[in-house]
């Protein structure tokens, strides 16, 4: 029997008034979601407490990494043949490289986006908190690596050309940058959903660490799903069509820059999932904690021809 669809495509149309109302709704959500902003620390009250919980209750691999030095040798730039690394090391170097791009991007944006004292529009206030959440994500990624026994990780800038691109991007007019910024957030959610499944495969014999990495990733993904809706809210109908067309080239170029991705993931499937993203495959407990634009919620019955999922098999 077909199952009811609760949510619509992230590329669904929205009027200017709907987007205005959704900015206000998102601002209400994000204030209670993260708690007080500690601007000097680029941190948020509830995010800080959650990280502290994980750090106060550490878990570790039953079988330590066979060759930690292979991680340290390759995590910033791949020195060895990536196919020669074991899959857990390859996964961890890939996680670092993905998170490093995120870190470099938010570093550049933090100095451009107005601080809260000079944020006079709800959009500017949202952007400031959004960036603080992203800094919290880097701390969570770092905790993933520490959980796997890698406590000597340094967050290293990219090359000068890439650093300059990331520094200048926030200064670009919104009509140009909003589409790419949205697609970048969508790419993050797509990657995290596929990474969650990879944990099941690679960490099958490490149940405690598998669960902890999933918990850490879930904290990030819940925020990123909300960010996808928030970034989409900046974009009008023409920009939305352009954004959808950007998914394939953006995913392809970005993931090509991280050699681990092609060995661990099906990039074509990630592109397909990005284009088709509609929130419906997210678990209910994550939906409850995140934010979805009102125009992506089905207000009348819609049905899917996808086969219903059976608990334990999907």
Low-confidence stretches: 300-314
Give the % helix: 55-70%
Query: Beta-sheet strand percentage?
Result: under 5%
Please identify the structural class as seen in this structure: mainly alpha
As for the number of domains, it is 1
Number of strands: 2
Taking strands numbered 1, 2, ... along the chain, how are they ordered across the largest sheet? 1-2
The number of helical segments is: 12
Could you provide a short overview of the structure?
The chain has 12 helices and 2 strands. By secondary structure, it is mainly α.
Name some characteristics of this structure.
314 residues, mainly alpha, two-stranded antiparallel sheet, 61% helix, disordered C terminus
Molecular structure report:
- The protein has a two-stranded antiparallel sheet with strand order 1-2.
- The longest helix has 29 residues, at 174-202.
- α1 packs across α5, α4 (87-110) crosses α6 (160-168) and α5 packs antiparallel against α8 (207-232).
- It is built from 12 helices and 2 strands, in the order αββααααααααααα.
- The protein is 61% helix and 1% strand.
- It has one domain.
- The protein starts with 15 loop residues before the first helix and ends in a 27-residue tail after the last helix.
- The model is unreliable at 300-314 (pLDDT under 50).
- The protein has 314 residues and is an all-alpha fold.
List the helices and strands and how they pair.
Layout: H1 16-34, E1 37-38, E2 43-44, H2 45-56, H3 68-74, H4 87-110, H5 122-147, H6 160-168, H7 174-202, H8 207-232, H9 237-256, H10 259-264, H11 267-275, H12 284-287
Antiparallel strand pairs: 1-2
């Amino acid at each position: 029997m077909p199952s009811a669809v609760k949510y619509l495509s992230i590329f669904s149309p929205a009027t200017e008034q709907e987007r205005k109302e959704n900015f206000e709704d998102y601002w209400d959500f994000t204030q209670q979601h993260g708690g007080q902003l500690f601007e000097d620390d680029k941190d948020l009250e509830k995010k800080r407490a959650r990280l502290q919980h994980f750090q106060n209750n550490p878990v570790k691999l039953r079988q330590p990494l066979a060759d930690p030095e292979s991680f340290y040798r390759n995590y910033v730039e791949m020195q060895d043949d990536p196919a020669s690394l074991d899959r857990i090391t390859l996964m961890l170097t890939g996680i670092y490289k993905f998170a490093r791009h995120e870190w470099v991007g938010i570093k550049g944006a933090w100095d451009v986006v107005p601080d809260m004292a000079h944020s006079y529009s709800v959009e500017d206030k949202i952007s400031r908190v959004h960036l603080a959440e992203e800094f919290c994500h880097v701390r969570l990624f770092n905790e993933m690596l520490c959980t796997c026994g890698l406590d000597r990780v340094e967050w290293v800038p990219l090359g000068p050309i890439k650093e300059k691109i990331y520094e200048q991007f926030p200064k670009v007019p919104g009509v140009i940058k909003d589409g790419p910024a949205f697609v970048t957030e969508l790419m993050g959610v797509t990657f995290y959903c596929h990474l969650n499944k990879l944990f099941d495969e690679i960490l099958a014999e490490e149940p405690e660490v598998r669960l902890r990495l999933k918990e850490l990733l879930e904290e990030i993904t819940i925020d990123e799903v909300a960010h996808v809706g928030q970034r989409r809210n900046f974009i009008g109908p023409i920009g939305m069509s352009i954004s959808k067309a950007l998914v394939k080239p953006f995913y392809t170029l970005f993931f090509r820059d991280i050699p681990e991705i092609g060995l661990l993931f099906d990039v074509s499937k990630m592109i397909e999932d990005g284009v088709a993203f509609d929130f419906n495959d997210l678990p209910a407990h994550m939906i409850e904690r995140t934010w979805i634009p009102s125009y992506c919620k089905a207000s009348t019955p819609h049905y899917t021809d996808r086969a219903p999922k059976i608990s334990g098999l999907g």
